[in-house]
Amino acid sequence: MSVRIGPIVLNQPICQAGLAGYSDRAMRLVARRHGCPYAVTEALLDTILLNGGQGLRKSLDINDDDHPVAGQLIGADADSMASAAQILHRHGYDVIDLNFACPVKKIKNKSRGGHMLLDTDRAIGILKAVRDALPPSATTTLSLRRGFDDSAQSTDRFYRILQTAWEYDFAAARVHGRTVEQKYLGRSNWDFLAQVKRTFPDRVILGSGDLFCAQDAVRMLHQTGVDIVWIARGAIGNPWIFRDVAKLLAGEKDLPPPSIAEQREALSEHFSIAMQIHGEQLAGRRMRKMGIKYARFHPDAQQVKQQFIEVRSLRDWSAVLQQWYATDAPGVWPVANAADEVNESDLTCAATS
After folding, report:
1. Do 279 and 225 fall into the same domain?
2. How many other β-carbons are positioned within 10 Å of the β-carbon of residue 125?
3. Same domain, residue pair 306 and 246
4. Which of 94, 202, 194, 104 is nearest to 139 (CA)?
5. Do residues 90 and 119 make contact, with C-beta atoms less than 8 angstroms apart?
6. CATH value at residue 295
């Protein structure tokens, strides 16, 4: 079941979303090992890219195994966003995704992310500037929430921005079913996603919101008609979600949870790559919260979770694997919405405000 984003062909209609503090190259590569055909970076702040130095080097972290990949860009100024998009394009990102969706307050207050849904002229100016700055062959996409709030005026602004993106030859749009004011509370409005797809049947729409397990992802595809599901919180500590979506779409019904051996393999690889990227100390801090999410699949989830909370180093990580993952056994399925336990404070949209 292939789908396209511009010239890019995906063998499955699924992608790993960008999540600050989580979806670095380590998470992306582990997801790819388990069937993820397309991934998006954490939101990269335009000013960090333009200032160069260590922030730029950390932002431009892809390698030959990490394709196709979208560099997600967030900012408030058209010229800065255009220049930052050129940097990402030069460094080999396959897609440039503009983030007009992030609801986090410190971003909104600086007229970035979801604030664009209140400032249509600014949003359209950025769309035009980025598209004009890139060669015609460059692939651009847009991320939006369904509105800033539930007002009819907000919906009108949403459609004006989206229609302009099509006019400027954007290849696809990701639509999150919550408003900016909702942040991560309440249910994602999948009916709105279906409405968007009906309005633009020939355009590529990625749907997001409330995708906590493989069954949710397949249900969204069938219920809304979106072309691709954008899996965010549901992929944290669960790279198997991509494999399982593909199985369900192929008609398989038996989806056993990952075994202890499969979990150990993913945990070992994830920490190893994270350590190569960040060094042992920072990897230890970042991987604590990843380990907590992985622990949901272990039969002794609460005890394993507590052990991961104490991790500070490779030695600590290895000790948890030795104690809890040395002997193979069946894993367990966590409750369907367990991925929703991610704290909003973890979901900041850029490395700095």
Report:
1. no
2. 17
3. no
4. 94
5. no
6. 1.10.1200
- For residues 174 and 283, membership in a common domain is answered with no
How many Cβ atoms sit within 10 Å of the Cβ of residue 131? 20
Statement to judge: residues 101 and 222 lie in one domain: yes
- The answer to whether 347 and 184 are in contact (CB under 8 A) is yes
In the block, residue with structure tokens 């992985």:
294
Give me the number of domains the chain comprises.
2
**Residues shown for the chain:** 353
Range of the domain at 46: 3-255
279 and 244 together in one domain? no
Residues 175 and 195 in one domain: yes
The pTM of this model reads 0.93
In a domain, residue 145? The reply is yes
Q: Does residue 275 sit within a domain?
A: yes
Cα–Cα separations (whole angstroms), residue 214 to 34, 79, 169, 180, 228: 13, 40, 31, 25, 13
Say yes or no: 317 and 279 in one domain.
yes
**Is 332 inside a domain boundary?**
no
Element (H, E) at 242: helix 240-249
Q: What is the pLDDT along the chain (353 residues), one digit of tens a residue?
A: 789 999 999 999 999 999 888 989 999 999 999 999 999 999 999 999 998 877 677 778 898 999 999 999 999 999 999 999 999 999 999 999 999 999 886 655 567 899 899 999 999 999 999 999 999 999 999 999 999 999 999 999 999 999 999 999 999 999 999 999 999 899 999 999 999 999 999 999 999 999 999 999 999 999 999 999 999 999 999 999 999 999 999 999 889 999 999 999 999 999 999 999 989 888 888 899 999 999 999 999 999 999 999 988 889 999 999 999 999 999 999 875 555 555 443 444 544 33
Q: At what angle do helices 152-167 and 120-133 cross, to 10 degrees?
A: 10
Peptide bond into 13 cis (omega under 30): no
Report the chain's C-alpha Rg in angstroms: 19
Could you tell me the CATH number of the domain that includes residue 140?
3.20.20.70
Rounding to the nearest 10 degrees, give the CA dihedral for residues 62, 64, 70, 75.
Answer: 30
- Helix (H) / strand (E) containing 146: none
